[in-house]
Amino acid sequence: MTSITLAAGCFWGVEAHFQNLAGIESTRVGYIGGKTSNPDYKQVCTGTSGHAEAIELHFNPEIISVEALLLNFWQMHDPTTLNQQGPDIGTQYRSAVFYHNEQQQQLAEATKQHLNNRQVFRSPIVTEITAVSTFYPAEEYHQCYLEKKGLGSCH
Prior knowledge:
Elements: E1 2-8, H1 11-18, E2 24-32, H2 41-46, E3 52-59, H3 66-76, E4 84-85, E5 88-89, E6 95-99, H4 102-117, E7 128-131, E8 136-137, H5 145-149
Parallel strand pairs: 6-7
Antiparallel strand pairs: 1-3, 1-6, 2-3, 2-8, 4-5
């Protein structure tokens, strides 16, 4: 099993998008990329902790490739808006790829460059691509939130 960590706005919707893809073994939502230890949802929502809402994906690379996950990632959100996805605004909603190895880094950078070169989006992609750091799992009530609530999406 392999892991990659992605941020694309509210983690509820990101998790709902990825959790049913073939090859996804498990998902976990949480916080990453900030400056404080053990943040909670309230702290992250203030925008002062520096963390992004993110999803840690555990997947079987024999069933779904990193490239396929990244293509899903680029298509499922707007990677051209800085610190915003839809009505959600703040650094906690930024777009980011937190790579776990050099192959993921290279693929993330290559696919980002390819999409920018082809002008797939109206504006340049602003997604951060950075090495994974400490991932703090979100509170239990956030895990599989939309599934538990019987909702299809956040907005």
